[in-house]
Structure formats: structure tokens, C-alpha cells
Amino acid sequence: MTQPSDDTPLLSVRGLTKHFTGRGGQIVHAVEDVSFDIRRGTTVGLVGESGSGKTTAGRSILRLVEPSSGQAIFDGTDIFALKPGEMQHWRKRLQIVFQDPYSSLNPRLRIEAIIGEALDARGYPRGARRRERIAELLTLVGLSPDYSRRFPHEFSGGQRQRIGIARALAVEPDFIVADEPVSALDVSVQAQVLNLLGELQQNLGLTMLFIAHDLSVVEYLCDEVVVMYLGRVMERGPSRQVYAQPRHPYTRALLATAPVPDPTRKRTHVPLQGDIPSPINPPSGCVFRTRCPMAIEACAQVIPPVEHLGGNHHVACIRHGEL
């Protein structure tokens, strides 16, 4: 994690909402009224179970899917208000590393062509300078420049993810969405890729949104954490503070399911029970109430506001004071 000198947010997300229309005209409430900031040169973790809306939120910020409403103020400009043609200029500054390192790479292209497509956006001419830049990018992510002539199927999952990272870096972005970039990798390889992302973030001064379902991964890499459940923010704040004193029952439940390297260490939180409800018909009031061990009748009546607890710690729970 970094210690940035500039507290100015590079990205401010306000009221991000994304609804899809499903079969029969049913509305899928994928993301509801999500707000958070990401300061320059820091990494924010966006965590939650599968179906929590975190990937949709990340892709909406990049406008890979169009948000239904809200704002995303990036370096002073609301990119949600830009026309499609205007967005093209900003895509050089906003990049993504996908979850599946194989399906995100064109199997018919050599690595030099895959990275070269990104270099086209930077106006790199073909020839010696382009080959040098591709070699630099491969070296930057810990791969041999000789790999540029190979095809994606000739690499391991971890190597393919490194290639995906090199492609994202080719346009020299300011901001990267890393969408569960290690979840498809073997445990032994995950640490290597996480270390690489941490080094790149520090050395290049990148700002990142790191999407994950594993809180232990987020604790290692991220300066701040945003916890989502069924499309809504449950808790957000500095990673150390949220991990040391979680103030939402859902955050506590996620911590209880996270791997603990010390077998003698006792868990202090109750593990999460049951399944996440359908986003087509979310529960009234607090969306977590149907699985919450602390739920009371009032939880079904009102959507809890995101309250400020001090510092940059916020929580959406009417009973947070009892935790």
C-alpha cells in the first residue's frame, strides 16, 4: 500500500446506479446508489460475494456498460456525461485488466500484435521503436521480450495475466480497474501477480480499483475498501480500520470466511449463512436483512443511509453502534 502526498480524488463516484432489463421486462437492480472516492496514487478494493454488483460497478465507471444514472468525476470531468465520441480520448487514461487472462487475449494474434493494438492508440509508429516498447512492457511485467512472437496458448495462466497487464499499461493510463485479476489463477501464482500489481502501482504512480471477493487479498494490496452487497455499499473506509473494527454485519461475515494462515487463530465473527437474494426482487429496507443475524423489524422498513463514523469510515447499518 502507498502513502500518497495528494489527497485529491482522481475519481469521485456519486450515486452510481445500473439497472438491466431482464426477460419479461423485469428490472435487474445490479448497482444502486454507489458512492466512493479514489485518491491519486492509491488502490481501493471493491469487495463482495458473486452477485454483489462489483464487476458491473467497475465496468460502468469505464462505460463498458452504460450506467443508468450517477456521476463519475475523473480528474475534474464527469465521464458519464460525455458523448461516445468524446469518451474515446479518455479511454487512454482508463484501462481494465480482466478476470480471465485467456479469453481476454485474441488467440489468433501473437503477443506483439496484442500489445501493438494498444500502442496504436498511443500513435506508436511501426518499426524498431514499437518493438523496443513491446520489449520494455514485457520486461516491466516480468516476462522475457522473446515472448512477443508467441501466441496466448503457449503461456500459463499467470503469464497470460501478465500479458494482459502489459497491454493495459501500453497506453500509459492513470487509472486501472483490475477485475478479479487473480481469481482464475492457482493460489501459488496469485501472490506473484499481486506482488507485481503492487510494485507497478508504486513505481508508476497508478491509481487502481481492485475488484475481489476475497477480503484477504484486498487487505494485502489496498489502501481503502468498499464492501458491496446486492448492489449497495454496506461499508467503506481505510483498509486497516475496516479490518480491525468492522462496523457492518456483512463485513464481519466476509471476514469470517476469509482464509486464516494461522490455524491456532480463533475466528471472532459469525460466518455468513444462506444465499444472496435475486437482484430482480431485492428485499425491502436493508438488502442484507434476510441473512443478517442482527436484523430487527425496523431493518425491513427503511434503506439505511451511509453514515460517517469518523475519518473516512462509513457504514450503512441502523445497528452499527451495537457492534
What this model shows, in words?
The structure is a single chain. This protein is α/β, with parallel strands linked by helices and 323 residues long. It has one domain (9-93, 173-322): Rossmann fold. Helix content is 28%, strand content 23%. It has 9 helices and 12 strands. It has helices at 54-61, 84-90, 111-121, 128-140, 157-169, 187-204, 215-221, 239-244, 249-257, and strands at 9-21, 27-39, 43-47, 69-74, 77-78, 94-97, 175-179, 207-212, 224-229, 232-238, 307-310, 313-315. It has an 8-stranded mixed beta sheet with strand order 6-7-8-3-9-10-12-11, with helices on both faces. Strand 1 and strand 2 (27-39) form a beta hairpin. The longest helix is centred in the middle third of the chain and has 18 residues, at 187-204. The radius of gyration is 20 Å and the shape is globular. The model has no long low-confidence stretch (mean pLDDT 91).
Radius of gyration: 20 Å
CATH topology: Rossmann fold
Give, in spatial order, the strands making up the sheet with the most strands.
Answer: 6-7-8-3-9-10-12-11
**What CATH architecture label applies?**
3-Layer(aba) Sandwich
The counted number of beta strands is 12
The helical percent reads 25-40%
Strand content: 15-25%
SSE succession: EEEHEEHEHHHEHEHEEHHEE
Number of helices: 9
Chain-averaged pLDDT: 91
Q: What about the largest sheet?
A: 8 strands, mixed
Rough outline: globular
CATH-assigned homologous superfamily: P-loop containing nucleotide triphosphate hydrolases
Low-confidence stretches: none
CATH class equals Alpha Beta
Distance between the termini: 27 Å
Number of structurally distinct domains:
1
Family: Belongs to the ABC transporter superfamily.
Membrane topology: Peripheral membrane protein
Subcellular location: Cell inner membrane
Domain ABC transporter: 11-255
